UniProtKB/TrEMBL annotation:
Biased composition (Polar residues): 37-59, 76-85
Composition-biased stretches (Basic residues): 23-36
Protein name, UniProt field: Uncharacterized protein
Origin superkingdom: Eukaryota
Originating species: Psilocybe cubensis (Psychedelic mushroom)
Compositionally biased intervals (Basic and acidic residues): 13-22, 60-75, 146-156
Stretch list, region Disordered: 1-92, 133-156
Length: 427
């Protein structure tokens, strides 16, 4: 059927058709079969084909389409770099972890009772992460789901508790009868914590700084307790050697908080703790010698395993093996990197703040523990936003628990592990 005057004249034989007219005639009446084979792109263009000829592509649209096609693989490539090994690193400020903290010392070999810090072989910090208390929900002690229903008038109170200042730093109560708990054991090289008051007492310009190493990571407390227990072994030259069990000297709550900072050099990670056992009155010479305060904090920095060793011991120890997403995302260099993205050295940053708690989940991780502040006011200053006060309030409540319940949290046997050290006395 003719659609224009020219086509009608051609059909009536008044004028002869040209080659162009023949081509237009073929395109003007598409067959039913060809309509079924129209691609999605052609279907989108169909409303524009109302005239006698196909629309001329816009140069800008063509350029945009080519740019889009060229950029698409590049975007996917960038996403792969940021999400290496299925992990994507992103710096988090605020509370990145909270839980319960325990301090142990182990006497030297063949020393039955430690009397001073010179009789100590190792000093350990045990971290057991916990979810925040407000995430536990309103659970009844009987476990009855019906008892979990809450009166509508109390909903506002619960919301206020969740949003209370510092609530993200308060750990949920421990599951005393469960041995399946994630833990990290950090061994401190100087056999005590860095003293926040040392700078004032000695007049030094720098804060007291000690090395720490993650010596054990796992999720089975039974194996940890076995490692902390007494040991006996044979030697060729000295015969049977005996090591007494580790002594628990303090227990409390902790929070790890990252400060705000646009660049790595402006970021700090504070680990603050408040001791529930022993109480402030029972703190004795053993806690004082080990640098344990009722409330205190220190700064954590994590060493890049690619950076040169800082001492002879590090030079002879096997460096931690972090995955690529940590090496590239945190330190700015690693396997497959053409150039470092952070720092001036080819290996990236030598030290970094604890941007993610995953940095502490690898055996052999090397840490710098830098003295910060002591006391409840100092704890609040380090953690900020009411976290220190909230942690203090929580641990003051937990201080009412018996020493037996503290030992039950870890599965420690009172017949094997002495309790005197938790009362402030050397043993």
């Amino acid at each position: 059927m003719p659609t224009t005057r020219r086509q009608a004249a051609i059909q009536e034989g008044r004028i002869k058709p040209t080659e162009n007219d023949k081509g237009r005639k073929k395109q003007a009446v598409p067959t039913r079969k060809s309509r079924k084979q129209v691609s999605p792109q052609s279907a989108d263009d169909t409303p524009q084909r109302q005239g006698n000829s196909a629309p001329t592509p816009n140069k800008r649209n063509v350029d945009d389409a080519q740019d889009h096609a060229a950029k698409k693989p590049k975007l996917e490539s960038n996403s792969t770099k940021q999400q290496i090994d299925g992990q994507k690193h992103e710096y988090q400020s605020g509370t990145i972890e909270r839980g319960h903290i325990y301090f142990f010392y182990r006497p030297r070999v063949q020393v039955n009772e430690a009397r001073t810090i010179d009789d100590i072989r190792n000093f350990h910090i045990l971290l057991i992460p916990r979810p925040p208390q407000f995430a536990q929900g309103q659970k009844s002690s009987s476990g009855d789901e019906g008892a979990m229903k809450q009166d509508p008038s109390d909903m506002g109170k619960t919301e206020m508790n969740v949003l209370a200042p510092g609530a993200d730093a308060v750990p949920a109560p421990d599951e005393a009868h469960s041995s399946k708990k994630n833990y990290r054991l950090i061994t401190v090289g100087k056999k005590r914590l860095p003293n926040p008051e040392a700078k004032k007492e000695t007049g030094k310009l720098t804060k007291e700084t000690f090395w720490g190493t993650v010596t054990s990571v796992g999720n089975d407390l039974d194996s940890l307790v076995k490692g902390l227990g007494q040991k006996s072994y044979e030697t060729k030259t000295r015969g049977t050697r005996h090591e007494g069990p580790a002594r628990l000297v303090a227990r409390g709550g902790y929070a790890i908080v990252n400060s705000e900072g646009e660049t790595p050099s402006k970021r700090e990670t504070h680990l603050g703790y408040h001791v529930s056992h022993p109480g402030a009155v029972e703190m004795g010479d053993v806690q004082k010698s080990l640098g344990i305060f009722s409330a205190s904090s220190f700064i954590i920095q994590v060493k890049n395993p690619l950076a040169p060793a800082a001492n002879t011991q590090q030079a002879h120890s096997k460096p931690v093996e972090y995955p690529d997403w940590i090496m590239q995302g945190v330190f700015g260099a690693g396997k497959g990197c053409e150039a470092q993205s952070r720092g001036r050295e080819h290996y990236g940053l030598r030290f970094a703040s604890c941007e993610t708690p995953k940095l502490l989940d690898y055996k052999g991780a090397e840490l710098l523990l830098i003295a910060a502040r002591d006391g409840e006011e100092g704890l609040e200053t380090s953690l900020g936003d009411g976290r220190g006060a909230a942690l203090t309030e929580m641990e003051e409540k937990e201080a009412r628990e018996s020493l037996g319940s503290v030992f039950d949290e870890l599965g420690l046997n009172l017949d094997e592990f002495p309790v005197e050290s938790l009362r402030g006395s050397w043993i």
